Amino acid sequence: MTDAVAMTNERNQIFRDLFSGKTPKRVPISNPATQDFAIQYAGLDLAECQWNLTKLEPVYDKFCQDFYTDTYPGGSIRIPSHYQILGSTPIVMSSSGFMQHPEVVGLLAEEYDEFIASPYDCIIEKVLPRLFTEMNGAPGKVAMALAKAMRAHSDDMASLGTIRAKMNAKYGYATMMGALTEAPFDFLADFLRSFKGISGDVRRYPDKVLAACEAVLPLMIKKGTLPNPAMLGYTFIPLHMAPYLRDKDFATLYWPTFKKLVETMVSMGQNVQLFVENDWMRYLDYLYELPENTILRFEYGDAKLVKEKLGKKHIISGFYPITLLQTGTKQQCVDKAKELMDILAPGGKYWFQTDKSVINFESKGPVAENMRAVLEYVHENGAY
Amino acid sequence: MLGGEGKMDSKYYATWEEYLAEHPELDGKPAQAIAPKIQKYEDAMFVFIMDLLL
Questions:
Q1: Which of A54, A69, A296, B8 is most deeply buried (CB count within 10 A of its CB)?
Q2: Under an 8 A CB cutoff, do B9 and A214 touch?
Q3: Secondary structure of A319-373 in the HEC alphabet?
C-alpha cells in the first residue's frame, strides 16, 4: 500500500467517524481557499485558466503541496464556458476574472401560480429564457445552444475530475462525494424572485410563497440526492435568507420545507452539510430539531453557545474568521484557531473549516502564510 | 404536497416507465441495458438545468 493510499484510508475513516458521531482520531481539516485563490497563488491569469483548464494541473499540485488539508481543496461549480454559451445574466465573469452573481429576477410575481402548478416546466419555459439570452428564441437556436453548453460543461467537469483524481492519488485526500441543493425558500429567492422581490412577497403573497416552496421541494430533494447514498460524502446546502426574515416568516415560510428537505436526505442515508450563512443565533432551537449529526458550518455567531446548545447532537464547523488571515499576525491567527479548537473540539463532532471561502490572493499580502500556519497548527494539535 | 415523495410532474422530465410508455418501438428491446442509459441522461439534464439556478 502506498503512503497516499494509506492516508486516504486514514482520512476516510476520520470522516466516517465524524459523520457517524464517533470521536475521530483527530480534528479533520479542510483548506478554505478556492480554485480562484489557487490560480492566483500560482501566479497565473484567473480568467485564462478558467477558460483553459489544462493549465490547472500544476496549479492544484502547488496548492496541494503548500497547504495542509484532509479534503480535496479548491473546486468550483462555476466554470465560465457554458454560462457564456447560454448568454448567462445571473452568473457572469467580472473584469478581474471572478464569477459573480448579480441580482436578477427570473420569475415574475404574477407567475407564481404557474410555478406552483409545475415548477420544472415554469423554469424551462419562463425562467431560463428570461435569464439566459441564448435560451430565448427559435427552438432550433435554443436546442443548439443547450447542446453546446451541455458538451462544454461535460468536458470541463471531466477535466477537473481528472485533476482531482490525480491529486487524490498523490496526496491521499479523503474520497468524498458531494451533491448541492438549496432550501426551497432560498431557491425561490436567489435566481427567481431576487432578494428584493422575495422580501416583498413574504408580506404581499405569503400563501403563494409557501405554496411555491412546497411545490419546488421535490426538485430540491432530487437535486441533492447522491448517486449512491452509502458513499462517503454529503449534500451541501448553503443557507441564505433566514437571517433577513422576521421570526414568524421564518417559522411559517422558510423552516417547514427546509426541515423536510434535510430529514428526507438523512432518511435516504446521506449526510447533510449546512453552510449556515450570516448569523443564525436566534434560530438555534430550530437547528437542534434537525436529524442527529447534521453538519453545521457557521459563518457568524457565538461558538460557545453553539457548542453548548447543539454540540452534543450535531457536528459543528466554521466560525474561523478569514478576515483575520488578512488583518492579523501569524501568532494571532494561530491563537484564534487554538481558541476555537478549545471550544469546539472537546468530545469530537468538530470539523475545522473557516467562516467563508478564501477567494482572493495578494502576492504581497499575509493571507497565504497565515492560512498555511493555521492549517498546520490544527493538523499538529488536533489529535484526540 | 409537503413531503417530497411526489413525482416531478413535468413535460420536460420523464421516468423510464413514462418514457417507455411513449416509445412503443422499444417493446422487446433489452430494457435492462436501455433504461439506465435513458434515465442517466434524463437526470443529467435535470442536474444541469438546476445547477444553472444555484
A1: A296
A2: no
A3: CECCHHHHHCCHHHHHHHHHHHHHHHCCCCCEEECECCCECCCCCCCCHHHHHHH
CA distance A191 to chain B (A): 6
With bands split at pLDDT 50, 70 and 90, how would you rate the model's confidence at A76? confident
Q: Is residue B32 domain-resident?
A: yes
Distance from CA of B37 to the nearest CA of A (A): 14
Report residue A224 as a C-alpha cell.
441533492
Specify the pLDDT at position A74.
Answer: 83
Ramachandran region, residue A147 (left: φ > 0; alpha: ψ -120 to 50; beta: rest): alpha
Determine how many CB atoms are found less than 10 A away from the CB of residue A137.
12
**Residue A124 in this model has a pLDDT that exceeds 70:** yes
pLDDT of residue B8: 76
Number of domains in chain B: 1
In a domain? residue B2: no
How many CB atoms are closer than 10 A to CB A39?
25
Beta-carbon separation of B52 and A88 below 8 A: yes
Whether the pLDDT of residue A284 is over 70: the answer is yes
**Residue-number span of the structural domain to which B34 is assigned:** 16-51
Contact A222 B8 (CB under 8 A): yes
> Does any CB of chain B come closer than 8 Å to the CB of residue A80?
no
Grid coordinates standing for A349?
A: 463532532
Is the residue at B3 inside a domain?
no
The shortest CB-CB distance from A214 to any of B1, B52, B54 is to B1
Q: Which chain B positions have a beta carbon within 8 Å of A192's beta carbon?
A: 53
Lowest mean pLDDT among A101-115, A191-205, B3-17: B3-17
DSSP calls for A169-191: HHH--B--EEEE---HHHHIIII
